[in-house]
Write a structure and sequence with these properties.
36% of the residues lie in helices and 20% in strands. It is built from ten helices and 13 strands. 44% of the residues are buried.
Length: 249
């Protein structure tokens, strides 16, 4: 059993949360019971995850996508009311870390995603150094990387093939990082992997020859929260359970 403030202090330090310019607050977003015995991790603080965590007797939830974002008008209605109502009624703490959880060099979304593809970053790129880039163990074809992504993630990626070159340098940034594609190209990537594809990136891939892989926002971000929560559980002797709420995005 550990006090929630100890967990938050540990997370803030481990993830270096204060250095990021982010889209919402990182840390404890909803205060629940003071003492924590079990922590559930997941990608998004959806109602389904909250209900599953309550069913699993969790005292705290750790997610990548929390409840509060810049631009929200502050009204507690509709879906936000429903989620908060459940958390407060059952006194479940909600911890959320967005960009800090993407960036951590060992436990973050990008590091954990790369590990599953046997990609090790030797450099960073893009705003706040969130993008990772490195060389695969051996050069890959576009088809081989697409097959590897499908095998690891359980879903086919949307692929814009570029000029068909061998992929000697692969860049990646999980989630909705399509805006990092130009920085990946400038960093010398032969391929870029992220979660989503917007209209401009297909043209950039065709015109520069750099292959583009969109493998799903949720699918690419299933690993960081689980790895961080597992570390917290080990640090404080807590029970941990990862709960994956399926999302086609």
């Amino acid at each position: 059993m550990v006090h929630r403030t100890e967990i938050e202090s540990h997370l803030q330090t481990m993830l270096d949360a204060g250095r990021f310019r982010d889209y919402g607050p990182n840390g404890l977003q909803v205060e629940g019971k003071p003492e924590v015995l079990k922590i559930v991790s997941g990608v998004t603080a959806s109602l389904a995850l909250i209900e599953a965590a309550i069913e699993a007797n969790a005292d705290a939830i750790l997610v990548h996508h929390g409840l509060f974002w810049k631009g929200h008008d502050g009204r507690v209605t509709g879906w936000l009311k429903a989620r908060l109502e459940k958390l407060l009624a059952h006194q479940v703490n909600l911890f959320a870390y967005h960009l800090p959880l993407d960036a951590h060099g060992e436990l973050g979304n990008n590091a954990q995603f790369g590990a599953r593809l046997k990609l090790v970053a030797d450099a960073r790129f893009g705003d706040q150094d969130l993008g990772f880039i490195g060389a695969p163990a051996q050069p890959l074809t576009v088809a081989a990387l697409a097959a590897l992504l499908q095998f690891r993630l359980g879903r086919a990626a949307t692929v814009v093939e570029g000029d068909g070159r061998l992929l000697k340098r692969v860049a990646w940034c999980t989630g909705g990082a399509q805006g990092y594609f130009e920085a990946a190209i400038a960093a010398g990537a032969d391929a870029f992997i992220t979660g989503e594809l917007s209209e401009p990136q297909a043209h950039y891939a065709r015109e520069t020859g750099v292959a583009y892989f969109a493998c799903g926002h949720h699918a690419s971000e299933r690993y960081g929260a689980a790895a961080v929560a597992a570390q917290v559980a080990q640090q404080f002797g807590l029970e941990h359970q990862f709960i994956d709420i399926d999302n086609p995005a």
